[in-house]
Design a protein that fits this description.
Blueprint (H helix, E strand, L loop, with lengths): L12 H7 L5 E7 L6 E8 L9 E11 L7 E2 L15 E5 L6 E5 L8 E6 L1 H5 L4 E8 L4 E8 L5 E9 L5 E4 L13 E4 L4 E4 L5 H4 L5 H4 L8 E6 L4 E7 L7 E6 L7 E6 L4 E7 L5 E8 L3 E5 L2 E5 L3 E6 L5 E6 L4 E6 L7 E7 L3 H5 L2 E4 L11 E2 L2 E2 L7 E3 L5 E5 L4 H7 L1 H6 L2 E7 L6 E10 L9 E6 L14
Antiparallel strand pairs: 1-2, 1-33, 2-3, 4-5, 5-6, 6-7, 8-9, 9-10, 10-11, 12-13, 13-14, 14-15, 16-17, 17-18, 18-19, 20-21, 20-26, 22-23, 23-24, 24-25, 27-28, 29-30, 30-31, 31-32
Length: about 475
């Protein structure tokens, strides 16, 4: 174990929190709303001492149109910290629509990543999987990507394995006869011999937009968490969260690798559920945060605007939980020192449907007046807060505005025309609270090939949403 310090990542989440470097670069997934143009990975300078601070300094193109790159992950991370022969030098970019997987070399020149390899979508479809979503590296030297559909884009929750060195597709991870009905995100905790995955819905339906008839149809949208026995790769338990838990998306366990506790953000009704292990070894989930809908008036007609909770994350010290409500336009911070009883410690408004459309609020426990449009460095923040990424020390929270191109065009059509954005919130890590930095903006409406939609963010050395640690 004397070589441990030479491996990728950090020996523990607290080591990353206390000793990790300040971020200088952010890799941001950028999707072209114009389907005839290429998506790309933008390298953004976030070093405040740099002359190109808060600017895109490089673009790594996919080389083909119509991919819809979405989330990203690493070839190796802190779960491989014991192996000095491994290097975190490749960023894995699955694409929802083409199922192509773009492997980007960020190690040779971190400021100018280059396309290393493209794994054709036909390889994934040959295993009856499509719509790849979350990428995690495993301590075994493999890369695992969750998938949301079968080859015909019907709902199916499965996982594709790749060799991290050769990048060869090895097949599916799940063993046994049980396959999850839907898929989305996942997190593993080997200490408890568990992996838990979440559910969105049927790709052939959600790719056409957000429709009430789909959301209420259990054959089209998921409401469950799927619990796997990590050692045998078998689905052993399905926890149905019911209507209140419709579309449980991002799932985050506490970073402490021995913790039997996690959280999942449920998009449609904007609720957070705590996941925890029971004395009998089974797992349970209970709702601990409920963001109420806002009743609004438009053209004399009342309607309700749900939060649409689209991303959550945990600080590396496991003190704060953050989530974004895309439609209501809020980013919230909760102290989860007691995971059973999260306490609200901060909230910032960043766009959203209510402020962008000037809707009148009829009834809401939180708001008496609609939040005012937010303007940063002269740009009105169209769209709402969507993806989040927190600095290792927890003091800076970066926020982007795009959820998924078909939904962006439907719910925030002007943003899809004028482009997305990235802003920064400064965080009080001692007392809680967040403030918008008025001097930081990346305007993705001013890109050389036209406006693009900015989605997930990564740091070159790993972050709180991509790294999983193993217990000693």
């Amino acid at each position: 174990m004397s070589c441990c310090k030479l491996g990728p990542g950090y020996p523990s989440p607290l080591d990353a929190f206390k000793n990790g470097p300040r971020e200088e670069l952010l890799y941001v997934v950028c999707v072209q709303p114009d389907q005839t143009k290429e998506d790309y990975l933008a390298t953004v300078d976030v070093d405040p001492n740099s002359p190109t601070y808060s600017q895109v300094i490089h673009r790594t193109y996919t080389g083909s149109p119509g991919n819809e790159i979405h989330h990203s992950g690493w070839n190796v991370c802190s779960s491989c910290h014991d192996d000095p022969e491994l290097e975190r030098n490749l960023l894995i970019l699955p694409s929802l629509h083409s199922c192509n997987i773009f492997v980007v070399d960020v190690g040779t020149d971190p400021r100018k990543p280059k396309l290393h390899k493209v794994i054709d979508g036909s390889e994934m479809k040959s295993f009856n999987c499509s719509f790849p979503h979350t990428t995690h590296c495993l301590a075994s030297g493999e890369i695992m990507i969750s998938t949301m559909g079968d080859k015909d884009e019907n709902g199916k929750g499965d996982f594709i394995l790749f060799d991290a060195k050769t990048l060869k597709v090895k097949g599916t991870w799940t063993k046994g006869k049980k396959i999850a009905k839907f898929g989305y995100d996942f997190w593993y905790q080997p200490y408890h011999d568990v992996m838990v995955s979440s559910e969105w819905g049927s790709p052939k339906h959600f790719k056409t937009g957000l429709h009430n008839d789909d959301v209420s149809n259990p054959e089209r949208y998921g409401t469950s968490l799927n619990v796997y026995k990590w050692s045998t790769q078998e689905l052993i338990q399905v926890i149905d969260l019911g209507r209140e838990g419709c579309a449980p998306l991002e799932i985050r366990f506490l970073h402490d690798p021995k913790s039997p506790v996690g959280f999942v953000g449920c998009a449609v009704e904007a609720n957070v559920y705590r996941i925890h292990k029971l004395d009998d070894g089974k797992w349970n989930a209970d709702k601990v945060i409920d963001v109420p809908a806002v009743t609004v008036l438009k053209n004399g007609v009342e309607s309700k605007i749900n939060g649409l909770m689209s991303d959550i994350l945990l600080s590396l010290d496991d003190k704060y939980l953050y989530f974004s409500c895309w439609m209501q336009g809020e980013v919230s911070q909760y102290d989860v020192t007691d995971p059973k009883n999260p306490k609200l410690t901060g909230k910032v408004h960043l766009g959203g449907i209510i402020s962008n459309q000037g809707l009148k609020i009829v009834e809401n426990k939180k708001l008496k007046e609609p939040p005012k449009p937010v303007i940063v460095k002269g740009k009105k923040l169209l769209g709402g807060p969507q993806m989040l990424q927190l600095s290792l020390d927890g003091k800076r929270l970066y926020v982007t505005s795009s959820l998924y191109t078909p939904w962006d065009k439907q719910l925030f059509p002007q943003m899809a025309i004028e482009g997305g954005w990235m802003v920064k919130l400064d965080v009080d890590t001692v007392n809680g609270g967040m403030k918008l930095d008025p001097d930081f903006l990346v305007d993705f409406g001013k890109e050389p090939n036209g406006p693009v939609l900015a989605h997930e963010m990564r740091y070159p050395g790993g972050d709180c949403t991509s790294d999983i640690w193993l217990a000693e």
